[in-house]
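Crash report, auto-generated. Payload:
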Amino acid sequence: TRVDKGGHRHFMAKEIAEQPHVIGEALSHYLTADGRDIALPDTMPDFAGVDRLVLVACGTAYFACVTAKYWFERIARLPVEVDIASEFRYREPPVADGTVALFVSQSGETADTLAALRYCADKAAHVVSVVNVPESSIARESGTALPILAGVEVGVASTKAFTCQLTVLYLLALKAARQRGHLDADALADRLSALRSLPGILNHALAQDRSAKKVARKLAEADDILFLGRGLMYPLAMEGALKLKEISYIHAEAYASGELKHGPIALIDKRMPVVVMAPRDALFDKTVSNMQEVMARGGKVTLVTDEAGLAEAGDGVTHTLVMPTVADDLAPILYAIPAQQLAYHTAIAKGTDVDQPRNLAKSVTVE
Ligand code: AGP
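Recovered output after restart:
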């Protein structure tokens, strides 16, 4: 299929804008007709009989896996091991009978992820993949291949594939919670109905593009940028830092807010912008206190939060991006949008090749 930029300046901009639509597509694919349950292929193992889940991927797909660990463990009470494929495959980890090993890949051709999959298949694990390209090697070699339905992604920096991966992984965590007796039918139906309102909420976040662009003009002047988040916002902070590095060539790294005083706080000065991802959730106060430690040392903070968070954040924040309110567990999908917009506009301000950044390939088929 031929794809064009659909009136956008870059494929990346088009793919960011497509997210409400493609997430809607993924939801209509997986939700039952009455919208109260999740339909998975018959080959999919029942999570009730599973005692450990292994999640393996590279890059952005790996950050989707780290996010999913929080969901599976908290909602489904299912222990999760998560690793990058290049480490997992050579560590020769024990893989017990009955382990479900889940591989996430946009292209379905990433060499290290495929090798990790073959390692687990050899050990008689049940291999499940979450892929965008249905005819890919990873999909073909899986016992169960679950499509994310993001459509063709051209930009080297993954955007819509990431949020569609998150959507499918969240559905799996909910299904696991239901099968393991941690969610009753009504509670599941409620969560699915919240999920169905997500595309509309994402449209509101997309409409904040001009604010993100303003902040990005400032970020473009920096040599280093720090991203902070806690809980579900920690993997998202890592994804935000990766996105920025890939296309703007500015060094960025992410820390779990609670780790700040264990080292990285030594870096803080007025020249290194700090992006804090923090919806007003149960961990918000803790993140705010970390943010204040940054500001007390001259750090310039961009706070990405919601109305409630804004009201409670106090003074001293340099920039804010205000997101719509969303159920706590869905925040990573929503907050992916400002992370992408910040990276995109910073890259534009720096004049880099957004869709084809230097040194990178869309699909890494060699180690
Ligand atoms: C994301 O922006 C990157 N270009 C990269 O990290 C990518 O996610 C990684 O190479 C994995 O690719 P895959 O999903 O096709 O396996």
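Post-recovery validation: The two ends are 28 Å apart (CA to CA).
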